[in-house]
Amino acid sequence: MELAQIEAFLAAAECGSFSRAAEVLHVAQPSLSNRIQSLEREVGQVLFERMGRGVRLTDAGRSFLPYAQRAMRSLQDGLRVLQAAREGSAGRLTIGTAPAVGTYVLPKLLKVFCDRHPGVDVSVRTGHSDEVLQLVLEDDVQVGFGRPIHHPDVHTVTLYRDELVLVVSSHHRYAKRGHVSLEELARESLILFDRDSSYYGMIINLFRNVGMVPEQRMELDSIEATKKMVEANLGVALLPEVSVDREIKLGTLHKVHITAAEPVVRETAVMYRRHKPQTGLVAAFLALLSQVYGVELPTG
What we know:
Elements: H1 3-15, H2 18-25, H3 29-43, E1 48-51, E2 54-57, H4 59-87, E3 90-97, H5 99-104, H6 106-116, E4 119-126, H7 129-137, E5 143-146, E6 154-169, H8 173-177, E7 179-181, H9 182-186, E8 190-193, H10 198-208, E9 216-220, H11 223-231, E10 237-240, H12 241-250, E11 253-259, E12 264-273, H13 280-293
Parallel strand pairs: 3-4, 3-5, 7-11, 8-9
Antiparallel strand pairs: 1-2, 5-12, 6-10, 6-11, 6-12
């Protein structure tokens, strides 16, 4: 059964005439008659009574009519969904992200994006940056966020740089002083990220570069848990500045400057497949990232 047959059947049923139906569909009358005859052969029933210059539905035709109408509506709905997805106004956007980006950066981006595209469904998966890259490569997600990892099949574009800052409890002696040397910090109870996180290596290297090994009290895999430990004065921590902005403003955490030390900066990049035209929702989301961060993102 073909779409052209259903269109011809519905047009003839509405017009009561093969000739008028042919005009509506912009086809020759013999072509329309052939479509209806082939449909009748396929269903094994006569669908129209021929009455001179007009036609009317048989009992079989009237029985078939609501199903043909329903099929046409479903097809039209499907075409509208495809058009909306192509235009970026509806569909599903899948994102992979490192936990820090997913918690502290992505919500603001998605708020803007979903306000602009209210018909969009969003799915977010989290993991370490290398895991996010694998999700992108396997097409499990359309866009990924994490530290820049370059792969020949993936566009990797740095969006922003975020500094790791030292934070202490409001009850810690460094809170009022506002600064500490790296030598003093190495003797403090330092709360570190788990060893699979890139943050762990960045913090350890900060001390190794000056020949020191920090005293470690705890190792956690959650920034939120780390902040709570620091607030409870169980240690101090180097955390992404974007993750502690709220607590610093509230005064539950205090930012302390590390004297004579190079800033510890981490880059965050967006990753998505090369050689794959980015259209619809993905193109709209990449356009938002380009606008927010002022970077050029290739779309092919």
